[in-house]
Amino acid sequence: MAFRSILIVGLLTCAVACRPAPPASETNTAKSVAEIESLLDSYRQAVVSMDAEQFVTLWDDPERISLVSPIGRLSSITELKAFFTQMRAALGLIRFGGQVC
Question: In terms of pTM, does the model score above 0.85?
Answer without folding.
Answer: no
